[in-house]
Amino acid sequence: MVKGIVASEGYAVGTAYVYAEPTIIIDRRKIELSETDAECERFADAVSEGKTQINQIRQKAGECLDESEANVFKAHLSIINDPSLRKKVNRKIENDRVTADNALEAVMINLVATFARMDNPLIRERALDIKDVCTRLLCILTGTELRTLSGLDDQTIIVAKTLTPSDTIQMDYAKVCGLVVEEGGTTSHTAILARTLGIPAVVGVSGAAEELKTGTELFLDAVDGTVSEGLSGDEAADFRKKLDRYLQMKNELAGYADMESVTKDGRKIEVCANIGSYKDCEAAQKYGIEGVGLFRTEFLYMGKQNWPSEQEQFEEYRKVAELMGSRGVIVRTLDIGGDKGLPYFDFGEEDNPFLGWRAIRMCLDNRGVLKTQLRAILKASAYGKLRIMYPMITSIDEIRAANNILAEAKKELDQEGLGYDGNIEVGIMVETPAAAVIADRIIEYVDFFSIGTNDLTQYTTASDRGNKKIASLCDPYHPAVLRLIGNVIDVSHAAGKWTGMCGELAGDPRMTETLVGMGIDELSMSAGSVLKVRKALTEIDSVQSAEKAGKILAMSTAREIRDALTEGGQDGN
Amino acid sequence: MITKEYVIPCASGLHARPASELVQMTQELESEVTLHHLGNGEIADAKSIIEVLSLGADKGDTIKIEADGDDEEAAVERIIDLLDHVEE
């Protein structure tokens, strides 16, 4: 049994497919002069076969590629077509009298090392593309099977060291019932993908790719975060019972997709999804979301080689706006820095990146970056109901400064004669204790609040949310966090405005009653939690929940609160 | 054969997108195209992404574009046009 961190809850029984780098056996014999032409030709054949393969995968991926994925293919094709690669390999075959695979391997090692040493981070990243392409060619030359994620059997559990966007594009989602990944945390690409698709996933499982073998039956418990091989007898029967209950519940929940999010006594709360792209937004439609409470735009900036252009951003925001129609979409301006960097921008070394130059702080120092984004959001606002949200706000000065840039962007669009929603709402993400405490002052400058509970918890309890040793301290059930939330909601209502929530707490069905009792107006979460929360919502009475919330807020410890919320028999599944 | 000196205008230099677009375009040309970095002395085949990226040409660096072949004049023009207008 191996253990990891749950990235997407659920249970699965399936066949392991270990997706790992292939073991390539190179033919290292010296060749005769008479053989060199044949080896060069063998390399040329491998190149055309490689091109065919890349084009086939590209075709299969079809039109659903986003730009960063399409760029992976472009990069791979330009490398495989590279005349210099061919020249280098041919020269090596002729001069050193080695086989094509031996020559290519040497050239690859050399190129990858050269690129990895380059100063420019954009170019350093290309080392990965070169390695991918050369590995494909080496597999062709040596007749080695190159593992891919297409053409999987039914009920496959994928086991991998890491999964990059270029791996997952070719993944046949319908065949995958679970993911086990060695790298990554709960906010990694894999984790977000798994939650969006509703596939159980465990990440941070060290040694999984070595320990688990392709073809064995795996029991994936993505509630406790364990993966077991070959359970039998009672253990297997117990597991299957849990799996059945999970599948049954999933089925039952499916019925909530078409329901309205109202309490028993008719109070309407918007249940929305957090998305990182248009693709996520499309995938979330099946849960009947009533809006997007958080559009994380940083994914448009990450995995790229340069700042995304205004046009590129506009296209993405417009597609989301059109898809959602009259349903609101809160677009959070760039939240980067802290634990997330950009390959093309130097944030500098920081002792405390989470307390450092991130999000709105960095954007206000790089006005051009923020203005480009605000122009793109404004232009897209003509196509639906977009709202703007600034992250990491601690003071009114920051809101004023950001709004000045917004005003400039509006003025520019006016001058250019471009349309936008003149009444677009502007809010802030409340995720610092500073903002939560002076929310009564801040509310005069904004149209709404959205509480980001992950960071609010981390900053309130002064505990790094990535540090496992203090994970138990970073608890959103801490009464201090809940009191701050209560204050934020109250002052927004006193000003005739509203408050939503987009942190993980919003997707925790045990907390739904308390939050409704505190008066929350909107809850936004991973798409995979929408149905659970909607179900919880339909089972509560808003008057009773206000009484209960009062009791919860009067409690002294996180444990007391957790006990009170779990004893009702809701097990959080 | 014709040559022309040119100063790189792209903020990120001849890396990333400008480099890949350049290579995609030059691969369609008849002419042999060579880029000489006049600062560091490196030389690159403009049809090779690997060599273009290894050239180390940053914004403001001067390169000499050298084209040799039937479409050499159009080649140089198209390269300059692309680098002048490429969206980063």
What characteristics describe this protein?
heterodimer; A: 573 residues; Glucose Oxidase, domain 1; Enzyme I, Chain A, domain 2; TIM Barrel; eight-stranded mixed sheet; eight-stranded parallel β-barrel; 23 helices; B: 88 residues; alpha+beta; Histidine-containing Protein, Chain: A; four-stranded antiparallel sheet; 3 helices; 35% helix; globular
Describe the structure in your own words.
The complex is a heterodimer of chains A (573) and B (88). The longest helix of chain A is centred in the N-terminal third of the chain and has 26 residues, at 36-61. Chain A has helices spanning 36-61, 67-80, 83-96, 100-116, 121-142, 165-168, 189-197, 208-211, 233-254, 278-284, 298-301, 310-324, 359-365, 367-380, 396-416, 433-437, 439-442, 453-460, 479-494, 509-518, 530-538, 542-553, 558-566, and strands at 2-3, 5-8, 10-19, 156-160, 176-181, 201-203, 217-222, 226-229, 270-275, 292-296, 328-332, 385-390, 425-430, 448-451, 498-501, 522-525. Residues 569-573 of chain A have low confidence and may be disordered. Chain A has an eight-stranded mixed beta sheet with strand order 1-8-7-3-4-5-6-2. An eight-stranded parallel barrel of chain A has the order 9-10-11-12-13-14-15-16, surrounded by five helices. Chain A is α/β, with parallel strands linked by helices and 573 residues long. Chain B has one domain: Histidine-containing Protein, Chain: A (2-Layer Sandwich). The relative contact order of chain B is 0.32. Chain B contains three helices and four strands. The termini of chain B are far apart. The radius of gyration of chain B is 11 Å and the shape is globular. Chain B is of the alpha+beta class and 88 residues long. In chain B, strands 1-4-2-3 form a four-stranded antiparallel beta sheet. Chains A and B meet through helix 2, helix 3, helix 4 and helix 5 of A and helix 1 and helix 2 of B.
